[in-house]
TrEMBL record, chain A:
This is Oxidoreductase.
UniProtKB/TrEMBL annotation, chain B:
InterPro entries: NIR_SIR_4Fe-4S, NiRdtase/SiRdtase_haem-b_fer, Nit/Sulf_reduc_fer-like_dom_sf, NO2/SO3_Rdtase_4Fe4S_dom, NO2/SO3_Rdtase_4Fe4S_sf, NO2/SO3_Rdtase_FeS/sirohaem_BS. This is Sulfite reductase. Coiled coil: none annotated. Residues 119-273, 414-550 form the Nitrite/sulphite reductase 4Fe-4S domain. It comes from Marinobacter psychrophilus. Residues 47-110, 352-401 form the Nitrite/Sulfite reductase ferredoxin-like domain. SUPFAM superfamilies: Nitrite and sulphite reductase 4Fe-4S domain-like, Nitrite/Sulfite reductase N-terminal domain-like. Keywords: 4Fe-4S, Heme, Iron, Iron-sulfur, Metal-binding, Oxidoreductase.
Length: 164, 555
């Protein structure tokens, strides 16, 4: 699964993203290395996870209750936000609120991440994009610059056009 | 009107190329159908019953004559010689080739037009009062705020994939001509106790299968907070609006489910994070937006004695012009001027349709007599807002020569009608045959004038594109075992006294619609007291007498 960061393809992704079903079936947590777990699992096993002494992330989506996350993300190095379908835009607002709450590490887009939404995701606060192999083409990198101007503020420059 | 700067132009130019590439990838099979569907809708392109349909944005209904001529050119070159104005004051073309759409968009971009966000689950074209800036009962011209909203909402990165479509209307007059209470957000300019002008914010109005009047969640919003407050509403809606059922995904359902108080609390909580932030409008930005909507160079001599006498002569000698003057023109704020309404409801033509040559004719009239601008109304007509009284006769003659001067504004045949089953893939029933039937049945203009102001709106399906719920007489087409039937409701209003019509009873077959309307009007004529309008009678007597007459069995 190609991962884009800073509008480039990252070859080494150190993160292991663990899914709820595997964890529920007893799949072991790796002893070392950065891992991200679903936020439900994180809530249930927070202390054990924090004792691992490796970078920790969570995976969230629009159905999760995120109020606590905004208050308590200083322990996290990565927050992955899932887009369950092409038409589900909740992730954009979640990223926006995360940035606003001061989270400044990796915000990764997961799930239905396709070329035509990359620029919108970046403007909303995502800084990493995991794209399915079968959908990825190298020309995706051009998507970030298709529209070179914007009226709204972005994460990079929060000023709307009338304040620039 | 607003003039694009280099950034605005770059945005629409680049959007054309972006869509061209998306269309190319779709036609090559690289972009799946369901994704292209969402992407093309965000650019106003539907695939309809007959062909693709392209809906072009007309921000807050304002068109320059140059833009109107370009629309005529598009109709002539890429379509079948006509376009259709809608209740969102946009224009749609019914027969473009999919592969030609990027070229149409490139042509539109040459005159500062586009099709961005005229469909899809995003913030749609903001609408307003077609008489903004010239109406007599106006607190302030709403158009600068519409333009500010246009910029904020155009390609908004966070709100391009909302649970459903999202419509905003702004009104600056005491009389609500923008149907603001039946919008996802209605913004009504109001004055507070300190004399400041701001906005009352209504949320969760809308028609469709669940018609609801909007709820006021803030009585007074200072102007500088306009965008931050809208941002807060949209964010709450984006996160909390239902996504499991598209029929329950509109913000009105969320507001009803939470209750307006809880919805307000969520918005205010979100707003607290951003209310004094970067989105706070600056005085300079408000002044800049206002600078595009200054008064035109009115002729100080417009009200001179000669003009007055010439108008008086024409009114006295030409009965048809006299009727047009009384029904299709309105008082203007400036002495010596009138507002002239161009009726897009000619006899036996599809309401809202306009041909390429008619568009050219309107553009010429706008240039010659109305400072080069035209407005589209949510009643599917056009308006020349600034016509000198002394020019009205010439304007009328030119309109009449182009079949645009039917003196029926505000009467029964000034109907809002969606294109219905003949064009729309959502529709259950035909509408255009019924509007013809009504026109044929009520072809006596004196009878129509005697009936007075009556709003008849007709939708071909439950989605209510023609706002049938808020008409004096609302007609909804329904499909019963392959046959078209029509459900009739009475007593709705989209104005400041907004209310939903009540269903009269069982639906009537297609052959009986005009006859049924005739029975309804007969009850009105029987019941009315002096100067009482149809709406007032329905309010006073209720729908029972109408029901009895319509469903009376033959003796």
């Amino acid at each position: 699964m190609p991962l884009l960061i800073d509008q480039r393809i990252v070859t080494e992704d150190p993160w292991q993203l663990l899914d709820q079903a595997a964890l529920d079936e007893g799949s072991p947590i790796p002893e070392n290395g950065p891992i991200a777990v679903p936020i439900i699992w994180y809530r249930q096993h927070r202390e054990a996870l924090q004792q691992r002494n490796s970078p920790l992330g969570v995976i969230v989506n629009g159905d999760d209750d995120l109020a606590a996350l905004y208050a308590d993300h200083s322990q996290l190095d990565l927050i992955a936000i899932e887009f369950p379908t092409f038409r589900d835009g909740r992730g954009f607002s979640i990223a926006r609120q995360l940035v606003r709450s001061g989270f400044n590490r990796q915000i990764r887009a997961l799930g239905h991440v396709t070329r035509d939404r990359l620029a919108l995701m970046q403007s909303s606060g995502f800084n990493a994009f995991a794209i399915n192999d079968e959908r990825f083409q190298t020309d995706h990198l051009q998507a970030f610059s298709e529209i070179s101007v914007n009226y709204q503020g972005t994460t990079a420059d929060p000023r709307p056009i009338f304040r620039r | 009107m607003y003039q694009y700067n280099q950034i605005d132009q770059t945005l629409v130019d680049e959007r054309v190329e972006q869509f061209r590439d998306q269309t190319r990838r779709f036609l090559k099979g690289e972009l799946p159908e369901d994704e292209f569907s969402a992407l093309r809708l965000m650019n106003g392109l539907y695939i309809q019953r007959q062909a693709p349909m392209l809906r072009v944005a007309v921000p807050y209904g304002l068109l320059s004559s140059t833009q109107m001529r370009k629309l005529a050119h598009v109709a002539r070159t890429y379509d079948r010689g006509y376009g259709h104005f809608t209740t969102r004051t946009n224009i749609q073309f019914n027969w473009p080739e999919l592969a030609a759409v990027p070229d149409i968009l490139a042509e539109l971009a040459q005159v500062q037009m586009h099709a961005i966000q005229t469909s899809g689950n995003c913030i749609r074209n903001t609408t307003t009062d077609p008489y903004a800036g010239v109406a007599e009962n106006e607190l302030e011209d709403p158009r600068p705020y519409c333009e500010i909203i246009r910029q904020w909402s155009t390609l908004h990165p966070e709100f391009a994939y909302l649970p459903r479509k999202f419509k905003i209307a702004v009104t600056g007059a005491t009389e609500d001509r923008a149907a603001s209470q039946v919008h996802d957000i209605g913004l009504q300019m109001v004055q507070n106790a300190d004399g400041e002008i701001g906005f009352e914010v209504l949320v969760g109005g809308g028609l469709g299968r669940t018609p609801i009047i909007g709820k006021s969640i803030r009585k007074f919003l200072p102007k500088q907070h306009l965008l931050s407050y809208l941002d807060a509403i949209l964010r709450v809606y984006n996160l909390k609006g239902r996504r499991d059922n598209k029929y329950k995904a509109r913000i009105k359902i969320l507001v009803e489910a939470l209750g307006p108080d809880e919805f307000r609390r969520l918005v205010e909580e979100e707003w607290a994070h951003i209310r004094d932030g970067e989105l706070t409008l600056t005085d300079a930005e408000i002044a800049r937006a206002k600078s595009f909507f200054t008064l035109p160079d009115y002729d100080a001599n417009a009200a001179n004695a000669d003009a007055h006498a010439s108008l008086g002569d024409s009114l006295a000698t030409d009965i048809e012009f006299n009727a047009w003057y009384r029904h299709n023109t309105l008082a203007h704020r400036v002495d010596g001027y009138r507002i002239a309404i161009v009726s897009l409801k000619p006899y036996l033509e599809a309401p809202g349709d306009i041909t390429d040559s008619q568009m050219d004719a309107v553009a010429d009239l706008a240039d010659r007599y109305s400072f080069g601008e035209t407005r589209a109304t949510h009643h599917q007509n056009l308006v020349l807002t600034d016509v000198r009284e002394g020019d009205l006769y010439a304007v009328w003659q030119a309109l009449a020569a182009n079949n645009l001067a039917r003196s029926n504004i505000g009467t029964l045949t000034d109907m809002i009608v969606c294109p219905g089953f003949d064009f729309c893939s959502l529709a259950n029933a035909r509408t255009l045959n019924i509007s013809d039937q009504i026109n044929e049945h009520f072809d006596d203009m004196d009878h129509l004038y005697d009936l007075g102001e009556i709003r008849l709106n007709m939708s071909g399906c439950i989605n209510a594109c023609a706002h049938h719920h808020v008409a004096d007489i609302g007609i909804l087409g329904v499909d019963k075992k392959g046959e078209d039937w029509y459900q009739i409701s009475l007593g709705g209003s989209s104005k400041e006294d907004a209310r939903l019509g009540k269903i009269l009873g069982r639906s009537v077959p297609a052959s009986d619609v005009a006859l049924t309307v005739e029975k309804i009007l007969a009850v009105y004529v029987d019941q009315r007291r002096e100067n009482e309008s149809f709406a007032q009678v329905v309010l006073r007597v209720g729908i029972k007498p109408f029901k009895e007459r319509v469903y009376a069995t033959a003796h």
